[in-house]
Amino acid sequence: MIELINVRKIFTQGEQKVVALDDISLHIKAGEIFGVLGQSGAGKSTLIRCVNQLEKPTSGSVWVNNQQMTALSGAALRQARQQIGMIFQHFNLLSSRTVAENIAFPLEVMGYTKLKRKAKVEELLTLVGLEGKANAYPAQLSGGQKQRVGIARALAAEPKVLLSDEATSALDPQTTRSILELLRDLNKRMDLTILLITHEMSVVKQICDSVVILHAGKIVEQGRVSDLAAQPDSLLAREFFPRCKGYTPRPGTVVATLAFAGEVARNSIFSTLARRFDVDVNILNGSVETVGSQHVGQFQVELEGAKVTQALEYLHKSEYAIEVH
Asked: How far, in Å, CA of 234 to CA of 237, rounded?
C-alpha cells in the first residue's frame, strides 16, 4: 500500500544543509499497522509528511496505492491525497465549528451535498463513539474526545491510508490505550492501512504489526514487531526487555539471554532444563509480554551445571533464540 524507495530529504538552513532522511526504503503492506519509532530529530515527522507530499523528497520516490505520489502535482495530487487521512498530536480542530461541522469540513471541500454530509457525519460519530456530541464545540471536549473527532474527520473521505503523527503523545495513558484500541478496531473493520509515528515503545507494543526504528534520518532496524522482540540482540527487544546491568556472574556459571515468541511461550522451559540436564537456572531479569496478539518473552539467566553446553544446544534446536554473554 505504501512504498518509499531511496528517499532522501535535505533541508537548507542558510549555508548549512541538514539531512532529515537518508536513503529510506520501506514497504508497508495493505491492512498493516506500521510504526515509525525514534526520538526527536530522528526524521519521523519528515518521513510521514513525505508520504502525502506535504514535504517533497529531495530524491527518491513515494508510492501509495500504486500511485507515484512524487510524480503528481496540482489536481492529480489533491485527488490522490483524498485517499490519505491524517491525524495530529494537537488535534488541529477548528475551534469555531461544532464537532459535526469539523467532521463535515473535508466533505464540504469535496462538494458533498448538505444531506449527504449529514448522513456521513452521523455514521462517523457512531464509528468513533461520539454519539450525542455532534453539537459540542472542541473546547467542551476532553483530549480523547478531540482526537476521536480528528479520527472521524480523517476518515470522512473513506481513505485507504491513515497517517498518525504522534496522535497519542498529548494524552494520558488510559486515554492513549482507548485511542489505540479504536485505531486497531478501524484497521480491522475497514481494512485500513495505518502508518503511525511515535517515540513511545508502549504504542508499538500495543498496536503495531511492523516497525522501523530511525536514528538521525537513517533506518537502524526494521521488521515484524513480534520477530524483532524475539531476537535477543535487537534494539527493539532491548527496549522491551531491559537487561540486568552490573551483575557479576558466579565462577563456573554461564549468563545468557533467552528469547521466544508464540506457542513456545507456553512451555515450562526452565523446569525442562533442570530435569533433563540437571542445570540450575537463576533468573536475573525478564518477562513475557503481549505484542499485538502474540506472547513474546525474554529472560536473562545464569546457568550452572556440568551439562550447560548440552542445555544451550537443546534450546537452539527448540525455537528459542539464545545470546550467551
From this structure: 5
Query: What is the fold, at CATH topology level, of the domain defined by 2-224?
Result: Rossmann fold (3.40.50)
C-alpha distance across the termini of the chain, in Å = 41
Local structure of 316: helix, strand or coil? helix
**Entry field: residues in the chain:** 325
CA distance 216 to 18: 10
Please report where in the chains the cell 545464569 appears, as a residue: 302
| Domain boundaries defined on the chain | 2-224, 235-324
Assign a CATH topology to domain 235-324.
Alpha-Beta Plaits (3.30.70)
- Spatial separation of the C-alpha atoms in residues 130 and 58, rounded to whole Å: 41
Detail the DSSP E strand segments found in the chain: 2-13, 16-28, 33-37, 59-64, 67-68, 84-88, 161-165, 193-198, 210-215, 218-224, 254-261, 280-291, 294-304, 321-324
State the DSSP code for 310. Answer: H
Span 105-132, average pLDDT: 94
Which residues have CB under 8 Å from 128's CB, separation 6+?
Answer: 148, 149, 151, 152, 182
For 271-310, the pLDDT digits (tens) are 999 999 999 999 998 888 887 678 888 899 999 999 999 9
pTM equals 0.88
